[in-house]
Every structure is written in structure tokens, then in C-alpha cells.
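Morning!

This is the sequence you dropped in the shared folder:
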Amino acid sequence: MQLKGLLVSLASLPLIKGETVLGVYIFHRHGDRTPKSHPPVSMTALGATQVFDSGNYYRSRYLASNSSTPIFGLSRDIAVTDQMDVTSPVDTVLQNSAQAFLQGLYPPVGSLSEQRLADDYSVEAPLGGYQYIPVNSVSTASSNANSENNEWLQGGSGCGNAIASSNSYFASNEYHEALEDTRSFYSDLLPVINGTFSHEEANFKNAYIIFDLINVATIHNTSIPSSDLLTDDTLRRLQVLANIHQWNLAYNSTDTIRAVAGSVLAAQIVQHLNDTLTGQSATPLGVQFGAYASFMSFFGLAQLQAVSPDFMGIVDYASSMVFELVTNTTASESTYPSPDDVSVRFLFVNGTAGENPLTAYPLFGQSEITLPWATFASEMSKFALGDTAAWCTACGNTTGVCASFAPKSSGGDDTGAASISDKGISTPVAGVIGALVTLMTVLGLQALVYALSGLRLVKKSTLLNANSAASGAGIESKA
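The structure's back. C-alpha cells below.
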């Protein structure tokens, strides 16, 4: 039997004048959900709509017939699973978000899914040609696979030194000053939150989870106890305090192991883009769904807080950051650009793409928006953790998968570099990629990322849109 329209969908893209997008890696936050203070957490209809709309935006950007920036070689209408790598932790909210996003990216194809059988009978796939796109599931290293039910930033990271580093914030003068300065603020909110928090718990130590609770309530609850206390200034302060709290748990400039989630994410990004390059765009699209704290950790490591202090805030639901692999040389099936002719551009949107602008920003303190591939990979290698031994050493872990690396005193950032074929990739880049290949063989890089992404999450936040209504967690739901 034959699938109508398949050859049309898979037809080679025409030669593109000017810039060509060779591949894309998207890291995406989930959509709106129920409050973390009332597990199990689940995605809402609003959340599904948010990520669906985001997927639809990226379809218009990269796949639509009238797209100005189509991804080279990527099927436009009918999803070809070998062309994409979509991943998510074993978590209901994140998995469902990924599925909703994919339905926006590759919607039902109707008659294009029609198949004519040997008896001349025609069959169209269910739900108008609904496309079943697998989301690769990965378990976390922690005992709790559901990232969204984890209230503490490093609770599911499995990285001993990262946990200790985050804990050290609670012993800092900065934390204790904030704790004392805000006691009356949180105490005054008890009439709003006392269905969930006791007097002893209403303080800055729970800044995020309190914000999350109230944020969800302002979105979903038709009535909130003592709602007159929730003035615009109060909601704004709740958000700012949650941002300060979470930023200090996710990143520290003098103790970068605290940003271990961002380090592992950086390694994954380089791995995928390098595979796109060496595979000549055989798998040009990578999509990963994860926690907001991974955004914050990466932002800190990539020095984006120097671009704008807004990057020190919690990203809104359905936020996404994009890494585009681009070239100004002609790309075709017979001619593929050299790595020397390829660059990387970083873009970010706070909230649902399309509703909010996708904007390019400079990375690593550089002045240029678009960086040569070798420069990008070299800068990422300065903080990427893509090798099992390196991760174990950096985290101080000596048991489980790290037991075999315990005697070693260094992580071996160069581990596996020799196994990378020479395709024009610079030495520092090859070192990172080699380490990543080792990890994929020994443990599975993605399992680490999601273990490290088992961080607390919120809904709407302040980042790059501090004046927007927060859409996060919620008050004890009575509805």
C-alpha cells in the first residue's frame, strides 16, 4: 500500500539563497499546571493549549510552505520520526506537554494519510490523520520520577555537590537577610495561604512554593480567601522574591556545580547540533521538554544575566530557547557546508511562542548574536558536563553508576575524544563531543539531564515579562 503525499512531503527543499537553517535544538518548558503544593501535579487544558500554540508557531517558522526559515531537509507535512529527536523525563506534565507541542508542529494530515489496500479499499488514519510522534522517555536517577511533584530545586538532581551547593545558600548572609526582611510580608499573607502553609512555613524559605500556589490561584480560582490582600504590588513582590530564591539555588558564579542542570543541558545541545552537522542534517530537529531551573542554570553559565537581569527570573509556562545551526553557503543533497561555514544563533521567548516574540540574544559575553560553530562549541565546552566520569567527579558521587569512577581524581573532559572522526571540528569541540559519545554509551546522557532537571517548576513568572500576570501554582483548589 502507498501513503498519499509522502513523496511531496519528503521532497528535497529547494536551494535557499542567503541563510539556510541546517538544524534546530529547542529546549521547552511545560504548559500551565496545577500547584506543586498539591501533588500529583497535572497539566491543565490551558497548559495544553499553550504548548500546542507554541508548536504551531514553530511549524510556521520552520515547516510551513511559506516559511522564511525552513529547516533544511526536514519533512514539512508528514512527520518522519528519524528526522527528529524528541525527549522528556518520565513525568506526566512534561510528557503531555511534549505531545501537545508535537500536534501543533505536525497536525493531522487528513487525506494525506489515506492508504489504499490490496482490495482497493481506502483507509484514512483516525482523528483526521492524527500523527503519532514518539516522545523518548527517560527515568530520573532519583527515586521520584515525577519532576513536577518535586518541590525542591536539587531534590532530583542526584548530584551530591550540587545539592550541597544549593543548601549553602540557606547559610548565606544574603538568605538570612531576606528571611528576616520578609517575615512580616509572608505572615500578612497567612489568611490567603493558611489552607496549605502553617505560620512556621510562611516565610522566604518557601518563597517559590508560596508564589506558585498564589499564582495558580489567580489564574484558575474564581474566589480566593482574603483576595483583597493580593494587590498588584503584593503579586509583583511575590514573584520577585521567588525569582531571587530560585536564581540563588540554580546558579552561583563562584560555585558553578550548582548549575549542574545547565551544564548537562549544554552538553546535550552540543551533541545534537554536532550530530546534525556530521550527519548532514539527517536528524535536523531536536526538542527537549524540561524544568524552569534548567533554563536558569544555563542562563547563568552562558552569562545571559549580563545581557538583561530579566534572565535571572523564572521563565513563564511554555517558554522556549532555540539554538539554530545556520550557514550562508548553499546547501543541497550533494553539497553540504563545512563546519567552518556554519554558525549558531541563540533565541529565547518567555511564554508561548507566537504570543510573545522569539528574540535573539548574545551568549558568553560576546557582542555578536551569531557565533561561528567552533566558537560556540568551544565556549559551551567550558561548562558542559557530558561524560559520566566528569559528572561523577564534579558531583562527588562515588556509588551506583559512579562507583567505577571513584578512584579517579579527575572527570576526564577529554574522555572519548579520540573516537570522534575528524570532520573539521576543532580540538576543544572534539573533546566535548567525545565525552558525550562516551556518556551515551555508558549511561545515556538524557537520563542524566532529566535527573538533573528534576527541579521545582512554576507556571507564569517574571522573566522578561515581569509585569505580566503570573500564572503559576495555586491556592488550595476548591473548584
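Headline: The chain has two domains: 20-114+123-149+259-382, 160-250.

More detail when I'm at my desk.
O.
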